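Why this split exists: single-chain examples teach little about how molecules sit against one another. For that reason, every record in the complexes split bundles all components of an assembly together and asks for one structure covering all of them. Below is a record exactly as it appears in the raw files.
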Amino acid sequence: MGELAGYVITGISLGFIYGLVALGFVLVYKSSRILNFAVGEFLLVGAYVAWTARDAGWPLWATFLATIIAGAILGLLIERIALRPLIGQPILGVIMMTIALSVILRGTVMLIWGAISKVYQPRLFPAEPVQLGDIVIRQEYVWGFVTVAILLILFTYFFRYTTAGLAMRATSEDHQLARGTGIRVKSVFAQSWAICAIVAGVGGIILASITSVTLDLSQVGLKSIAVVLVGGLESIPGAIVAGLIIGIAEGLASGYIDPLVGGGISEVFAFAIAIVSLLIWPYGLFGLRRIERI
Amino acid sequence: MLPAGTFNMSYEQDMAIIRTRFQWGAFITFLIALFALPLYVSDHWLTLANTIGYTLVAMLGLNILTGYCGQISIGQAAFVGVGAYTAAALGHHLGWSAWATLPFSAITAGFIGLIFGLPALRVKGFYLAMTTLGAQFMILYAFNHGGKLTGGITGLEVERPAIGGFVFDSEEKFFYLIMIITIVMVFFAKNLVRTRTGRAFVAVRDNDLAAEVLGINLSYYKLLAFFICCVFAGVAGWLKIYHIGSAFPDHYPLMDSIWWLGFLIVGGLGSITGAIFGAVSYVMLLEWITILSPMLGNWFPGVSHQLFAALGLLITGLVIAVFIVFEPRGIHHRWELFKLYYRLLPFSY
């Protein structure tokens, strides 16, 4: 029983991180209809920036702040330089551009920080595990859970009550109408990219504190895209729910299927779920069913 | 447009790929120069030419699927791997000769492609990109964990193909094998896209709903495009495995799938010439980076050991990004503009 609960809890906290990264992806898609394949590399950059800050001896809050600022700058720059010229271009060009961006970011990270994996020194979160009844949880999971919960509350507030959040929602409905009401659509695009890079960066810090700071972290980006497929491209709650589904499924697979087949199935499990779910619900669990006209 | 003074008087003339006597001369000169290549270049360049050969076959398939039929695939390297592993498994476990495995490589890759193409019936664009990406991961997982069948991470060895006592064991001998098959595949692809099937693909790409209204069977043509794409991938895999001599999962990485798609855009999506430009520029760019990175390594001693990998990603990614922003129609479009320019030369109006 304790074993099962352990896998489920690992899965839940992993799922929250997937959901967080997927949320950034969904935001960009909702506002600008761009599919951001570079989201995994945003996460990578966040984790490495945090490592540098931590290495310089900065406290926890300053590390997070540095990552957030770096993420915002990165998102704004990429939107302005790479994606604004592509407004109105066919989808393949845009997809290929974000893939190229992901590769460029990855190459830059390799050039700056090298390909050797690192750990946060000093640790970001204390090493003692938390005891919940007879279940033992690592502190990183708890902190990850708390961070994601805080971010979700912040986003709910942002989208419900702030002008910028309402402008973003209006833009996701209709670009023409949003412009008509005086919203600067391009600056909304830029904001959504900045938010995407920030949440991915925060997810990167938490994930890297659980495992280590390596280039393999960007795999999570691709997995979170699988999450988006299951949850539906346009739905923020969908991203979180599907993140949890895939996280738990992956946790259980790593616990119960991996020993049977010799390991590694949990790495491809997210994609298998995504493909099967696409065959059953082509637009995801909470996605909009689109009606096309010629 | 046709060169000055050339007019199409018959249907045959209108349909001819090689139209004028000069073009025939240029084409035959090119073929002679190509097949005489081993006489005047070193083995290193022949290896590059062979790499271009099977990369081109894989990219032609991808071009038919993505460039003509509009279905995005980020899993082509894995499908190439399916062809390669089919040949390796048949040759290694059952002792089949290389020639007997060729059709099976192509057909197996085709059918595996069909399975992963099934979601194309319900989804398109980004969703399809993701399912083919999933195919890449799952197929590579199967290679790594296939036990005796695929040899796992140690891979499978294959024997070189032979005709009678003539064994294809050097770069030079392989060059002829690869070039002949590549030319046959280029010819097939070039003609395929001019048939009813090719026109149906283009209609599906431009607007699939409109194509359906016109009476094109969408699911049939989408799956056919996947099948043809993966048959090309299977042939490319067959060439690659007998060229390298063994099958490893690492030979079919995700990055290859991505680069091929990117360099199709660099070369020119939706044209066979574009695929040729793309394959040549891809292999040449990688070669250039291989030469460049040790030189740069002297300047950046701290990161020299990962400089090649990092620069490879950085430069190749930048090339693709620059092409998407400034010339999304690729080198092929520039080439067409150049042809137009010199055919109109003194009177450019």
